[in-house]
Write a structure and sequence with these properties.
mainly beta, seven-stranded antiparallel sheet
């Protein structure tokens, strides 16, 4: 089975104005969620009132988010250097987005969720940011991890959502891990002609600007950025009924590498 052909969605020309459906419940029902990118220009307005749980995450630009009786003007210049603003709403809550800048990009995520919960607006200071991998593997796994939503933050959401920022040449997801729940990765690079590599199960997947990769359940998925290129990826996990994501299952044969005292070079 060619996993790259099955699981990767490539977009080499950028996104058109309006909403681009990248992963949908119709084309990829096994993912249990939809994901797309909304691109706007100044003066554009977009409204969402789906009968689904939804997440709106600002990539870049200056916008006004309106929902229920609340309105927030927010902006973000860099996905590499700034934490995001994120809005999570239950089904049937109407959300309106107005673009105030020359351009703006917002990722939109949707899934079934019958639970009615309070809408939550996450500011950059609400994001749990940590530097992982310090002091192990000669710092080859050091990267920034931003957790926006997980079960400890929102018990009602069917999503787990966050961002990773790789320093050039660094790894993430190692020691190799997997989990039962489906996951989506969306990539950006600086400079934009950068690339990375993902091990998906027993196969390799090349990663470039605006690529999306669907991670099937129970496949390991460590990845690395090319030297000289910073790699960003958005990760979205869909909790399963009665089986939410609470932590990874590590591939036992590689666990030793995460020990700070691990010997990673042979003696002469």
């Amino acid at each position: 089975m060619d996993l790259e052909a099955k699981c990767k969605i490539r977009n080499k020309r950028g996104f058109d104005l309006g909403y681009t459906d990248i992963v949908s419940s119709e084309t990829h029902p096994e993912m249990l969620m939809s994901f797309g990118m909304l691109k706007m220009k100044q003066g554009d307005t977009y409204t969402s009132d789906d009968d689904l749980e939804r997440i709106f995450l600002l990539y870049t630009g200056h916008i006004i988010l309106s929902w229920e009786d609340r309105k927030e003007a927010i902006s973000r210049q860099s996905i590499f250097n700034e934490n995001p603003f994120t809005l999570n709403v239950p089904r049937k809550v109407s959300v309106t987005i107005e673009c105030l800048s020359d351009s703006a990009e917002i990722s939109i995520h949707k899934t079934e969720n019958e639970t009615i919960f309070a809408s939550h607006f996450y500011k950059p200071e609400d994001v749990v940011q940590e530097t992982r991998g310090l002091g192990t593997m000669n710092e080859t796994g050091t990267r920034l991890v931003r957790t926006i939503i997980d079960k400890s933050i929102s018990k009602e959401s069917n999503f787990m959502l966050g961002e990773d920022v790789h320093y050039p040449g660094k790894w993430a997801g190692f020691p190799s891990h997997s989990h039962n729940q489906p996951e989506i990765y969306f990539y950006r690079f600086f400079p934009e002609n950068g690339f990375g590599l993902l091990r998906l199960g027993d196969q390799g997947v090349c990663l470039e600007q605006d690529d999306t990769v669907m991670i099937p359940p129970d496949l390991v998925h460590p990845q690395v950025a090319a030297p000289g290129y910073a790699m960003y990826f958005l990760w979205i996990i869909r909790h399963l009924e009665g089986n939410p994501y609470l932590g990874p299952d590590f591939e036992e044969q590689h666990l030793w590498a995460g020990d700070p005292d691990a010997k990673i070079w042979p003696d002469v």
